[in-house]
Amino acid sequence: MFIWKRLLKVAMTASLVGSLAACGGGGGNSADHSQTGNSGNAAANTSNKQVKLRIMWWGSQDRHQATLAALDLYTKNHPNITFEPEYSGMDGYLDKLSTQAAAKNAPDIVQLDPGWMPDWMSRNQLTPLTDVDVSKFDPKLLAGGSLDGQQYAVPLGSVAFGMIYDKAALDKLGIPTPANGWTWDDFFALAESSKSKLPEGQYFVKDYAANYFVYSAYQYAKGKGPVITDDGHFNIDRDTFIDWANHFDKLRKEGLVPPADVNTADKELDPQMDLMVSGKILFRYSFSNALTSWDSLKKGAYSLVTMPRAEQAGGWVKPSMYLAVTNDSKNQKEAIEFVNWFVNDPEAAKTLGTLRGIPANSESAKILESSMSETDKGGLDMYNASAPDAQTWTAGAGGWTNFIDKDFPYVHDQLSFGKITPEQAFDQLKEASASYEN
């Protein structure tokens, strides 16, 4: 679950950002990737038994390729360790992983969203990473992967939450581009002013009438705090939510957001299904590390901007994702050794780049600074613009994952299709929250 609050003082504002958000797209498969080599230092493993580790992650094609290259590098240096990778886009990832875990068949090593950590740790589905060196990690980033003094997962990166927009399209249409620090009033005014300039079939923004993440940013900006409190209570401010939903109701009626069927067909970072890549929308939410992935689909077209603000900042900075070893693993020792290498080895850092955000390992971030690309710089600019007064992310109370992943989208679809009013949407969310309350 995601909960963001207060001010974050970020230690690595001089680090860099690369590509792909906590919500990544791109195709994937689970083909065996068990190349072995004869060179390298296998002595790092205390055992020479042949071990195949299953590892699962989500992301874009760029992230897949970099991760596979890292696995090859590890096998080259540890010939007795090979891998069975399972990788895909974000859609369906948690459902698949949860099904495997319920059947006691989860992969050895898994990439986890920060919002899932409370549930996975409280259900004893992860093993402590006692032999992983976390001395080069910011304690604020480590916190979301720890419970009762044990570190169950290590953060892979740090990202800022904001927006990405099609700068090439805005320039072509004569629509002004936004600047870091803009407000929600600026956002809705820009949407209104674009109405006469948008051709048929093109829209200003995706319909976010009841999107958990973007609404969270709006409620924070209005000074109303988190949607769900740290101690596990429903905290949506009724007037703020209805105001937000009414804004999008107006955009919907004016043709500034896509029709509901188009909106629901969106698949982030898919070359055919992503509404921004296909030219149907100009704005969508994004993380600071996503620019390279979108740029790979349409070179030079996109730019990042901070999440709009009001009385407070709307955006937040947070761990991009975590890496953990499951309790189902029959090779926990070897899996933990691999995790330690993955997050601490300089060659691993160079191979993986910034595809999971600013490396959470401060030394890795320094190593990559000199190779910053133009898209890295774009992400870094947005990250640094967000960081000084960004909302602080915490994993919050466990047990609310389905409220975020199931109940919110259901209410959103009803709003988008015009089946319920904003007032009814609030009532449905409040009613649904009762079963999650602590």
From TrEMBL:
- Keyword Signal assigned to the entry: answer is yes
Which Gene3D superfamilies does the entry link to? Answer: Periplasmic binding protein-like II
The organism sits in which domain of life? Bacteria
Does this entry carry the keyword Methyltransferase? no
Q: Kindly give the PROSITE patterns that the UniProt entry links to this protein.
A: PROKAR_LIPOPROTEIN (PS51257)
Q: Which UniProt keywords apply?
A: Signal
Q: Which organism is it from?
A: Paenibacillus faecis
Q: What is this protein called?
A: Extracellular solute-binding protein
- Tell me the first and last residues of the signal peptide: 1-21
